[in-house]
Amino acid sequence: MRRVFLSLFGLLPVSAVLVHGQWTVFDPSVFAKVTAQLVEMQHQLSQMIQTYQMITNQYNQMIWMARSIPVNMAVRYRAVLTPWYLASATNTYGTTGGWIAAINSGSSVASGYAQASEALLPYGAALSSVPSDQLSRLEKHYATIELTDGANQNDIETIGMLRAHAPEVEQAIQSLETDSLSNDPDYNTEIAVLNKINAANVIALRNEQDTNKLLAALAEQQLIQAKRERDSEVKAVNTQIQMLGEGQAILSAQSSAWTSAMADYHL
Asked: Which of 207, 145, 142 is nearest to 173 (CA)?
């Protein structure tokens, strides 16, 4: 730029001589305009140089960020897979096979549970012989057993489905691990890395959802156990209330009957 400016500046006297030879006129405004244009060109050239340096630095940074780790990541960082073993038990009398199949697959839960559990029979017509003051308590105790059966079968189905889907989940995790530890440049682009991060987050959400299902199943079992304990406490309290309210009359009636029986007794 400086050379161009000097060259143009050197031509100005010649132009001035030619003009002088013809009209002997020198226009200072033209000289000032050319000088301003040269200054502007020099400013633009400085900006272009700065832009070039900035782009070069960005390019070098991108090259450095794209460098792979100088190790075999698949060998150095691969974790050992811990297998999830299926449930197993002996089946001497043919009562545990259905349970084991259900808790490993999540299917045929009702039949498998029934084979391994004591059947709960209905009272039927015998319910009419139960005293009215005991009927409600008997029905609620029966309901506790039914709720326990329902919760147990739900837990078996949840655990069975988790075990049945475990190989697919482990395969997805293993594939993600292989892609993450690959030194192939196609697997280490910015988009590829972001996709692998998203896939890892989705798998983590799935596992978290499965954990919540198991926690819900445990909470259901604890809820039923709490109901059973509450029913036992209520029975004890109700018995105490009945004894406090009617116990004296019952004892008096029994005492009078004993006195008469003893008085009428003869050897």
From this structure: 207
Confidence (pLDDT) at 237: 85
* Residues 114 and 59 grouped into a single domain: no
Handedness of CA 209, 215, 221, 225 (dihedral sign): negative
Last residue of a domain, one of 65, 89, 120: 65
Below-50 pLDDT ranges, the chain: 1-21
For residue range 251-266, list pLDDT tens digits in order.
666 665 555 555 565 5
Please tell me the distance from the alpha carbon of residue 25 to that of residue 17, in angstroms, as a whole number. 9
Question: Do residues 14 and 132 both lie within one domain?
Answer: no
| Residue 79 and residue 177 in contact, taking contact as beta carbons nearer than 8 Å | yes
Q: Is residue 92 part of a domain?
A: no
Angle subtended at Cα 222 by Cα 162 and Cα 165, rounded to the nearest 5 degrees: 0
